[in-house]
Design brief:
It contains 14 helices and seven strands. The protein is of the alpha+beta class. The chain binds glutamine.
């Protein structure tokens, strides 16, 4: 089936998905960060930004949630861009994980300890790659990097930052563990504090879709046309994220939607990068047991499948195969006649 890419068709499809998924009330908002327990379980927003800058929205697409784990993608991308892909590969690595995103056992037993840049171990260590003594300059470096992707100044959710800062013993423990393995690259207290603020930045579905789209274009902002990161760093991020962004659900996602990179956060956000097509942003706080937004995964799966160019290539391939078969039959008939 070819995708009709007219604005009306895309908007109608997104509206249909929104209506279908909205009544799904399953899942629970995160509670291990006390402030996240106050999130509105009814909040649901979808946005799709195409590589040519078109924007499609449904529901509360401009209401924000804390970005949480999705922030890890931007620090990893900055490391690939500014320090080099070989540096992030060596200092953090990219191993699969079937354990929860902040597993202490994972940090001990995984040979690299840092695992990958998208679980807490590798993510906090990635932030530590930018450590500098001046903590506010360090924070600004990490936070302002995300503004470039969003194309606007993102605000810090202070209550979430404070709440997470007061309850982040697991992240502190993970960081000290990594330090003991020589896999942490800055001061633990300052780095965990900056990491906590990077996770507490507010984003809407529209921000997430725009930010995802920067990777979909290969590093260029879909609205301004400015280059945000090198093509090579965008490629690294897209590839490294594949099979890692949705925790233990990642392999199933990959099988279901076909090679599309996505990242979720415990604030209820999900962003999906469809290379050469665009970015999808979804916001809905109730999470499944793995920590992914329930409505986000349900709607994201339908939308990603629909907009996946690989499915189109497959359709083209099938169509060509049919035409080839038809031609072949016709040729055979004519040959027989001769
Ligand atoms: N800030 C959260 C943490 O470090 C992010 C986790 C997540 O979104 N999976 O625990």
């Amino acid at each position: 089936m070819y995708m009709n890419t007219s604005n009306e068709h895309i908007q109608a499809f997104i509206d249909k998905v929104y209506k279908k998924v909205k009544p799904n009330k399953s899942g629970n908002v995160a509670t291990y960060i006390p402030q996240l327990a106050k999130a509105d379980p009814n909040l649901f927003g979808i946005c799709f930004v195409t590589c040519d800058g078109r924007v499609f929205k449904a529901g509360q697409s401009n209401k924000t949630v804390p970005i949480e784990s999705i922030s890890k993608v931007f620090s990893a991308a900055m490391a690939a861009d500014e320090l080099g892909v070989n540096v992030i590969n060596e200092k953090i690595g990219n191993m699969g994980s079937s354990l929860p995103f902040n597993s202490v056992i994972g940090a001990v037993l995984t040979p690299t300890h840092t695992i990958n840049p998208f679980v807490n171990q590798g993510a906090i260590a990635t932030t530590s790659l930018f450590y500098q003594k001046n903590k506010e300059a360090f924070r600004k470096k990490i936070l302002s990097n995300m503004d470039k992707y969003a194309g606007r100044k993102l605000s810090l959710n202070k209550p979430v930052y404070k709440s997470e800062g007061a309850t982040n013993s697991t992240n502190m423990a993970l960081s000290y563990l990594l330090k003991s393995f020589d896999r942490f690259y800055g001061d633990v207290d300052d780095t965990v504090d900056v990491y906590t603020s990077q996770c507490s930045v507010n984003v809407s579905a529209e921000d997430l879709a725009t930010m995802a789209c920067v990777f979909a274009t290969g590093g260029v902002h879909p609205h301004s046309g400015d280059r945000i990161i090198s093509k090579n760093a965008a490629k690294y991020t897209y590839r490294a994220l594949r099979g890692e962004g949705l925790y233990e659900y990642s392999a199933k996602w990959d099988t279901d939607v076909g090679a599309i990179s996505a990242k979720s956060g415990v604030g209820g956000g999900i962003f999906i990068i469809i290379k050469g097509v665009g970015g999808i942003g979804l916001v809905s706080p109730p999470l499944d047991k793995m920590g992914n937004s329930v409505r986000g995964i349900q709607a994201g799966t339908i939308l990603a499948k629909k907009f996946n160019p690989l499915f189109k290539a497959h359709a083209t391939f099938c169509k060509n195969k049919k035409t080839r078969r038809k031609k072949h039959k016709k040729n055979k008939k004519t040959q027989r006649k001769v």
